[in-house]
Specification:
Length: about 675
């Protein structure tokens, strides 16, 4: 990983102190991506769902000169070893043992839908810790203390209300000058885009937010499956073949271009293979992918794909609902999702990118469970909390998160967040509880600490066809993770830094980003895919109506039908006509912000949706050739080899796959059963 330390060069001779300084978690000393490749989707975009060079992920680290040498801080006796930061997250609220309750709400029971707060809402939802946070200038300490605002009570906020000595006043003024001379550049990006300041006072930030309409689920069109050349519905051509046929392009030439752009042939520099055995020595989760009609292919990591294109399309474009016939070719909703996703990969889509991509490289964990690599440890949890609560909770906007901190990139469109626990502590309490130290070592400007437990919910991938948002089936494709972190507070209750703790040291968002706007209407990608043509198909599919051009008919699709080749119930596109909801509630034509959200209580959710998604829809067997068997590949499509052999698709996702991409292992029990019959 390329990075540039500023202000201080850290020599190897002071390794221990260097780790301490490099681990600064003040918002004002965060690593900042400086590669110059973050402003639009391209082959160099750091959020790209494939390999990018270290140069395109380079970042700058500003070293905080005020941090103490951690080796000089005395250790103390730990009263509750189960609360140490390098252990697993406690099952009971931290406030039952230490600290002062700010917010404490029970999470759903094990086996229940962990994302029910997000999956049963019909309007944009946000709940602030104070009902007057945006309109009242009254100090929250003057309000009646309660579960949400109790941390402002005199008894727990002594620092604010005690007389300030001349020395402390001088320290505060010096700190104020330092904070004014330093700013968090990622927060500045958000403020520049939205045209307003980000709220950083914890008491004013909503504790729950749900973005509506939800982004729509779809595949990430894996590279090893030859991208949109994949046959996802048995007996039907791929989306790429359909497009070329309907719009008068040479089918073979167009599909070859697709493969060279984002499919198997784009990986020609990788190890040549004829079976998964040839890829077994690799440690990147590669599978042997072979195009139809070929005897050899390339070892390709199965996480490679165009998630960086599906996700913004799912946010900005309305979801296809019905099948559309054009020039005698019937496009199912999933075909149109393929085409619109590929457009977003090849178009000029401007972006706001925050955080840094961990691109592999040297990393280790210190005795407190903290990663030493700046890019791995980033995002700072303080920035994560500020961004999520401002964007979703206050601005009715959403974003895309790489939900795994490791080197794989899993971009997921975010649906909502909910804070379940906030416990305030003094610096001494936090230092002793989480690190076994006498003094808090990670932010010299901090005056108090608030421990948080927050759920982030996102949409995951599926090959299920139909209008999944309008039908409500999107709830089955919503998952998430609980994040555990410390927020470092200044004396006025503002968030100035943070630390990941417990499982979140390893599993937390790597970066977050979002598209600024749709592609230009006249966009034609390098492979010849026309945004105007795809938009025409999309509009007809959304409206479920006919057309006077090109003999377009709105044959209704199997809304939400499971086109899974993993079962015998996979539907053949267009074989049966089902009624479909007219229109779509998926995504508006405007950028991802939703209009006219209402503030409702998080308990408004009363219906329990299906927990998680039917994973059997997510690996189209019709596009996979097992080179260890005699199974014939589907015609006229890509046929990645051996992905259901000894190295099956789901076993090639890397160490972080289950822990980050699909959310919590503990809450996925019902999802794993399909392994038994696959």
């Amino acid at each position: 990983m390329v990075y540039t330390p500023r202000r201080y060069f850290i020599p190897a001779a002071v390794a221990l102190v260097a780790v301490q300084q490099a681990s600064a978690t003040s918002l004002y000393y965060d690593p900042v991506t400086d590669s110059g490749t973050t402003d639009e989707i391209s082959s160099k975009f750091p959020a790209r769902g494939a390999e990018v060079s270290d140069q395109d992920c380079s970042f700058t680290v500003e070293v905080d000169p005020t941090l103490p040498d951690i080796t000089t801080i005395s250790t103390v006796t730990v009263n509750y070893t189960e609360l140490l930061a390098n252990t697993t997250a406690p099952t009971e609220a931290v406030s039952t043992l230490v600290g002062t309750v700010v917010l404490c709400e029970s999470t759903p029971a094990s086996g229940a839908d962990q994302d029910s707060y997000a999956t049963t809402t019909t309007t944009s939802t946000s709940t602030s810790t104070t009902s007057t946070s945006q309109t009242s200038t009254t100090s929250s300490s003057e309000e009646e203390p309660n579960c949400a605002t109790g941390w402002e009570d005199q008894s727990s906020r002594k620092l604010r209300h005690t007389p300030m000595s001349g020395r402390r006043l001088q320290e505060k003024m010096e700190q104020k000058r330092k904070l004014e001379s330093n700013s968090n550049k990622d927060i500045a990006k958000l403020e520049a885009y939205f045209g307003s300041s980000m709220e950083t006072t914890l008491a004013n930030l909503p504790t729950v937010g749900v973005h509506t309409p939800s982004p729509w689920p779809g595949p990430y069109w894996p590279t090893y499956q030859d991208s949109i050349n994949v046959i996802w519905s048995p007996g039907e051509p791929s989306a790429a073949e359909k497009y070329a046929t309907a719009f008068g392009l040479d089918v073979t030439d167009f599909m070859d271009k697709v493969s060279k752009d984002n499919g198997i042939d784009s990986m020609s520099s990788h190890t040549v293979c004829s079976s998964d055995t040839d890829c077994s020595s690799l440690t990147d989760g590669s599978s042997c992918a072979i195009r139809t009609g070929q005897s050899s292919g390339y070892c390709i990591p199965t996480w490679y794909g165009i998630c960086h294109a599906w996700t913004p399309a799912a946010m900005l474009e309305e979801e296809p609902n019905c099948a559309v016939t054009y020039n005698g070719v019937t496009f199912q909703p999933l075909d149109i999702k393929a085409l619109i996703s590929d457009v977003y990969d090849g178009a000029t889509v401007t972006t706001v990118f925050t955080g840094t991509r961990y691109n592999g490289g040297t990393d280790s964990e210190d005795e407190y469970g903290r990663h030493t690599n700046d890019a791995y440890r980033d995002l700072n949890p303080a920035y994560f909390h500020i961004a999520a609560t401002n964007m979703i909770g206050m601005l009715n906007a959403t974003f895309i998160a790489d939900v795994t901190a490791g080197s794989e990139v899993w971009n997921q469109p975010v649906r909502g967040y909910k804070v379940y626990e906030q416990t305030e502590m003094t610096l001494e309490e936090a230092a002793q509880t989480f690190y076994g130290l006498e003094e808090y070592p990670f932010n010299a400007a901090a005056k108090s600490i608030v421990y948080c437990k927050t759920r982030l919910s996102w949409i995951f991938e599926t090959y299920t066809d139909g209008g999944l948002v309008s039908s409500g089936q999107v709830d089955s494709y919503t998952t998430g993770a609980y994040y555990y972190y410390l927020l470092e507070m200044d004396d006025s209750g503002k968030i100035i830094g943070g630390e990941w703790v417990y499982d979140s040291d390893d599993d937390h968002p790597d970066f977050i980003w979002f598209p600024k706007a749709k592609p230009s209407a006249d966009t034609v990608t390098s492979i010849g895919l026309s945004y105007a043509d795809v938009t025409m198909l999309l509009e007809k599919s959304v409206a479920c109506d006919g057309s006077s051009s090109g003999s377009v008919s709105a044959a209704s699709s199997t809304s939400g039908s499971e086109s899974s080749p993993l079962s015998n119930s996979a539907s053949t596109a267009g074989s049966t006509a089902f009624s479909s909801l007219p229109g779509s509630a998926s995504a508006g034509s405007a950028p991802f912000t939703s209009s006219g959200g209402s503030n409702t209580d998080e308990n408004a959710a009363t219906v329990a949706p299906v927990t998680e998604g039917p994973f059997a829809t997510d690996a189209p067997v019709s596009t996979v050739t097992n080179t260890d068997t005699t199974t014939a590949p589907s015609s006229a499509t890509a046929a990645p080899s051996s992905n259901q052999g000894s190295n099956n698709y789901w076993n090639n996702q890397g160490n972080n796959y289950w822990n980050g991409h699909w959310g919590d292992n503990s809450n996925q029990n019902g999802q794993h059963s399909w392994f038994n019959w696959w």
